[in-house]
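Troubleshooting: if your tokenizer reports a length mismatch, compare against these two reference records.
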Amino acid sequence: SAQAQPRAWHARLQRCACAEAGAEAAGGVADGGVLGTRSFTPARSWAEDDADVAVRVSAAAQALLEAAPPGAEAAAADEALLLWYLRDRKGDTDAAVKKLCRALEWRATAPEWTSVGDEAVAREDATGKVALLDGTRDALGRPVLLVRVSRHVVAERDIDASKALSARAIEAAVDACDEQAGVEQFLGVFDMRGFRASGDKSNADFAFVKFMVKLLFDYFPRRVGRVLLVGAPLGFGPVWAVVRPWLGSYGELVRFVKPHEIRQYFSTDEDVPEELSDMMR
């Protein structure tokens, strides 16, 4: 289930964004081949040494305090959070802080965090459209997030609840990364079999895709290491032609694969989870 409450990674943003409210109440993505990269931007690509990193983190903290988004004080004290956004923006302090500000604003004010009820999210979750495959790791040790696209029906979905569910699912995937082992990203598997581009059961939800792009670019930057579109039918071609430009450099992470090719993303047949095993038949 993807409905779990926020944990480590965006709980960090949650803590920052909600810190002030609580106080008041109390008073270029690199392409690493078939599998994708294990990490993404080594610090030395934008910083001369550890001292330079420290200076940049300090500058980002000060700039964040001056920008004063929700939870600025708590975020400015979180060196790991600041460093992640600096890495994402290749050491550009202004760009990193602007991006982090957008994430904090989103975490504090977006309907998917502030007004969507648990029951609405539970209804979306019950469709089985998205799931973090518990205990599953790909050949690079990354957690696996499965999206069954045919179960996302535009005419039937609650878009805010779908956004909330997706945010929580990605958050859970990030939290499942073992950063101490050098695993900072997750694998996204989109089961495209049965995709319908039109009709009453259409799965072509452009408004939702735009949100997902923003989710991955602004709010969980560089956290997805590879996206597999599995078994996409011919009817998906026109949809992809619209969506691809929205992805920018993130489009390089996408691979179209046939169902049986899912095996190459896992070390052994036994490592392919039950939820994906039918693709290999």
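Reference record two:
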Amino acid sequence: MVKRHAGWCLPLVAVFWAWSSFSTLYGALPDSSLYLVGVGPGDPDLMTLRAIEAIKKADLIFCTDGLEAKLADYLDGKQVIKGYWRLFEYYGQDISQLEGEERVRAEQLAKKRDEFINMVRTNIANKKTVVILDSGDPLVYGPWAWCLEEFEDLKPVVVPGISCFNAANAALRRGVTNASATKSVILTANDWPGKTDTIERLSVHQATMVIFTMRAEFDYFIRQLRTHYPPETPVAVVKYAGYADREEVIQATLGDIYERIDPKALPFEYLIYVGDFLTYRHKSQQQSSAAAGASKN
């Protein structure tokens, strides 16, 4: 009897093992009623398994028009609310101190933000799971980071995503920490009012720098970089990082970048890389060292 049943027991064991593995793989999502989810840059296949699980769990999803279109297959049948992006401006500030058009804009944003906060709290009070979707990684220059402070009492869970920085590194096919004289990478963005870590000050170190541009002025970036980086410094622009059919890399130097790029033709989704890592080669370094040693002899 034992021998007769051994044959069909093995498939059952295999099925159980596969189900357990699948369950373990998809069971990593921490429990919460509120999730801030990074869905990666570019194409949907750069989204993580954990992000997909969070979307499956959601009763209510906040996202942009672009993300709704990109993730249509995953959002099918879900309640999706749009129109609440970029609510971080003036958050936590005393807008009564502002004047004119800025005061009007701040009050409009505050009203919109209060609507959003009320919707989130009302749905969670009604035992709903709320998911906020953001491109890339939500905590690298993401517009939703303020939510973690606002809803701290709800213990929100952040699902990390692949940043456009990671996708652009892959497009460059270069190790951003590999260079002849430096090992550090500075991530930065436009010089926002009140911030002291300006591009010009950061460029003093001449480390590898990656600029999240977000429609900021390309000419301004190049002017600031040229303050301390020499003209021969390699520079690259990565457009549409993570999109298999649109991704593009343009390489030049700070001295001749305008011969390769028309700033007016740049899209919203591009990053600027500056540093010797773009041209660094391990073998060339070894050959140079060998040649220097031979000349001494």
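Descriptive notes for reference record two:
- The beta strands are 34-38, 60-62, 79-81, 130-134, 157-159, 185-189, 208-212, 234-239, 248-253, 270-274.
- The CA atoms of residues 2 and 274 lie 69 Å apart.
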